[in-house]
Fold:
Amino acid sequence: MTLCKRYLASAVAFFLVLGLEQTAFADRPSTGVLFIAMDDLNDWIGCLGGHPQAKTPNLDRLAARGILFDNAHCPAASCNPSRTAIMTGLSPNTSGLYSNRQTMRDVLPDAVILPKYFSDHGYWAGGSGKILHYFIDAPSWDEYFPAKETEDPFPRTYYPKQRPVSLPRGGPWQYVETDWAALDVTDEQYGGDWLVSKWIGEQLSRKHDKPFFLACGIYRPHEPWFVPKKYFEMFPLDEIQLPPGYKEDDLDDLPPAGRRMGPNRYFAHIRQHNQWKQGIQGYLASIAFADAMLGRVLDALDRGPNRDNTIVVLWSDHGWHLGEKQHWQKFTAWRVVTRVPLMIHVPPGTPGLPEGTRAGRVCSQPVNLLSLFPTLTELTGLPHKKDNGGPSLVPLLRHPEAEWPHVSVTYLGRPGSYGLSTDRWRYIHYAEGDEELYDITNDRYEWTNLAAQSEYADRLTALRALAPTSFAEMTLPKVDSLPLLRWHPADDKPTPPSRPDGDRFDVVFINQSSAAVKLYWMDRTGRPTPKPYATIAAGKSSRQDSRPGAVWLIADTADRPLGHFVVGDRTARAVIPASD
Structure:
């Protein structure tokens, strides 16, 4: 065969194969994926029965359309590690990302997240709102609202000009967004999630040239609980009921690590200002608002051309305490944080589940949101991503009562601390070695810790055998990704005293001046420590353990004050500027 004929034969063969591949892709059902996230939503929704006053007709409507997983748990007890695990398919104990203080791309610079994986396999990937932890990751999306280049996932949102509105700040330890208020605006004037639902609705209302992966990040009920007043009016303050899971002496049977994890100053501060019921009202109102925004998205899907070929998945990144275990916020391994809404609707004709899901089914097997990545690739017929850490949920979508040999693990903010869920039992292990055990069948709210009772020793042994055994080290965030502390140059006024109040964390002091400087801690009386904590050479840095409200004085080598920093509520960098 001549070279020309060989080339011609190879070219024909290539285009025949290409044509077959294109035909196969064209014949494949173009199943879209609508991937809906809600933020800080616990089980206070109608179909999960977490609070008797919750009003969530659209969450209940979606649950009734497909399968509700009523024993679903988050991969981690805070936003960043949970969302990173969901979007990468990598568990925190594998990735080393355990905390909100870390940055996903610092820890996992090359990880492929869900939209990019789908885009690489022929999908159009779009999104709006908070999907990752306060950034968009622009290269992973085809289109985003707001524009992906901004790396800011939040559209304009109406906030009060004077803040706080309802809850005075108790000190630098308090998250500035812990506040609530009924706003005299319409949904459209409020913006925020209304604008997210508008943009998502527009995408669902049109035909697409490719199958789509469309992510919708609804921010509420994340703090601050500022939403239009009509949602507050749904929950009259004089009718507000306290959390069903609250028990005043609930810490008495906990081990030392659990007792430290339980009470935090937020709940005490809220009660001191008589704002407990107001806070519950704000949370219920924010859930109702989020539910209304979900309704707008579901209506757009139902009215549009994609209704019959779109998988719908809804999840929350973790739950939330409103006084249970004397705690407010998240960050714990108790069920009020780990258990989250998860509902999935699969239409008939989906490649990985041709029969689709049967409406109105409930699955009570212990599942984890880490399974969403492999579930979606199997449903859509895409290749399995080999480093995914969770099992696919497709067997349970097919038969909710199917045998399920897996447990669900939620990781806390340090290696070795986690909560483990089975169909009936919950086991909590702290890095110090302390343990808790609960029988959820008879103790829904985890009021009775069974770990110290001898008759449950065998149960503890069995659960320990199911627990994770390896934990990646926590990767410290890169210094240049840390928030900046404000530099206060020295003047005629005395340097203020420290008011340390809150948990410890690191502050990195960076000396950009041309000479060495000394680092002093200001005590509570306004005097610097007798000896410097460090001497930082020009161009060098020093990492220092600190607390919220601490004041650090910077002096030259002759002990002349140059300026100071006041530490906020999180890890930060303090840059000592170049000399004038």
